[in-house]
Amino acid sequence: MLLKSRLKLLMALFSLFVLLAGMSIPLKAAVIQDPKPFVVVLDAGHGGHDSGNRGNGYYEKNIALNIALGIGKILEKNKDINVIYTRKTDVFVKLVDRANIANKADADLFVSIHCDAFKSSAVFGAGTFVLGLHANQRNFEIAKRENSVIFYEEDYEKNYAGFDPNNPESVISLTLMQEAYTNQSIEAADAIQKSFIASLGRKDRTVKQAGFVVLKYTYMPSVLVEAGFLTNKNEGAYLNSKKGQNDMARAISKAIINYKSDLEKSVAGSDNFTNTPVTIPDNDREKKDIYFRVQIAASKNEIDPKSYNFKGLSPIYRAKEGGYYKYYFSKSESYKQIQKDRKKAKRQGFNTAFITAFKGDEKIKLSEALDN
Fold it and tell me: Distance (Å, rounded) from C-alpha 175 to C-alpha 140?
C-alpha cells in the first residue's frame, strides 16, 4: 500500500514536471537575442615616452587621456554602447596597434583624441579630421606631426611598409583602405564639430581631411579630434583644466550618441515585402526565376559591396530602392540554403538580417515565393 502511494506521488510529480517543461517552451521561443552593442573605441593620443606637443608646458598625452576617459565614463552609462580604450594609463601604444585594437573589437566607430599646436599663439579652436588627401599645407603639417610618432617605434619601417610622414606622396596610399567609410567618418566628425559649437561655443574649424596613419589601418568609420591649441595661452589653460576636459568629454560623447542614433535611423531592416522594382546592375541580371537573398542593411550611403566592408561576408549585392541602397548577402534558389546563410549573417553581427525573395529583378513577397 505504501509502495502504491509513493508511485502515485512520483507519477504526480513527473506529470507536473512535464507540464511545467511544456509551458516553458513558448517562453524560451519568445526570448529575443539582444542586438550587437554599438562598439566605440576611444584612442587617447600619444602616451608614455611620447608626450605629444608641449605647448605652454602642458602635456598633450595627459589631456588626451583625461578627455578619452571622460568620454568613456559617459558612454558606458548606455547599456547598448560598448566602450573600448586603446590605453587607460600613461603608456606608449604603436599607431598600428591602436588600429588593431579597434579592428579586433569589430568597432563601429574609432575616435582618436589629440591637442593641436601652431607657431602662432593666436590660433585657437577645436577641429575634427577624417582620412583623406590634405587640401593644404596646414593640414599636411598636422598629419605629419601626429604621424611622426612612428619614429618612436623600433620597427616602424616594417610596420608601415616604408611610409614616410615627411613625404606628401606617401599620403596618397593611406586613403585607399578607408575610402568605403569616408561618408560615415565625415558624418561622425561633423556631429562632433557641431557639438563643439552648439554645446561649448567653440570656434568652428570645420571638418577636414588629412593623411593620418592611425586612421588608415582601421576598418570602420574613424575620426581624429584636435581638441584645441595648447600653444594658445587661454585655450591651453582651458584644456589643461578639469572643467575644460569635462566639457570636451561631454560634447564628444553627446556627438557620438547623436551619430549612433542617426545611423540607426538610416540603416534599417524590415520584414515589409513589396512588389517595388529594385534596380540591380546589368551584369547581375539573371533569368526570371525565383531566388532568395539575405538583406543585412539599408543605407542612404552608397558603400562598396566588398566583403571587408561587411564583416567578411561574401558575396554582397547592392541594389538601389527609392532613396536607399539595400545590401544583400548570398543568393540561392534553395530556401533551405538561404536560411543557413541568414544564420551566418547573424553570427557575424547582423542581428536584423532577414530573407527576401526575388523573381527576376522584382522583389516579391516571401510567402508568394514559397508557394511556387
Answer: 14
Return d(Cα 59, Cα 96) in angstroms, integer.
22
CA gap 160, 162 in Å, rounded: 6
CATH topology of domain 282-371: Alpha-Beta Plaits (3.30.70)
Domain 38-265 has what CATH class?
Answer: alpha beta
> Other C-beta atoms within 10 Å of 247: how many?
20
> Using an 8 Å Cβ cutoff, are 219 and 172 in contact?
no
Sort strands 109-116 and 204-210 into parallel, antiparallel or unpaired. Answer: unpaired
Under 8 Å between Cβ of 236 and 229: yes
Closest by CA to 164, choosing from 198, 213, 119, 199, is 213
Instruction: Give the start-to-end residue ranges of the domains of the chain.
Output: 38-265, 282-371
Q: pLDDT for 216-256, tens place per residue?
A: 778 788 999 999 999 999 999 999 999 999 999 999 999 99
How far apart are the C-alpha atoms of 49 and 58, rounded to whole Å?
15
Check if 38-265 and 282-371 are the same fold: no
Write out the three cell numbers for 36. 550587437
Residues 6 or more apart whose Cβ sits within 8 Å of residue 251 = 192, 195, 196, 199, 200
pLDDT tens readout for residues 180-203: 577 788 889 999 999 999 999 888
Look-up of cell digits 576636459: 245
Percentage helix, strand, coil for the chain under 3-state DSSP, each rounded to 5 = 45, 20, 35
Report DSSP letters for 296-346, one per residue: EEEESS-----GGGTTT--SEEEEEETTEEEEEEEEES-HHHHHHHHHHHH
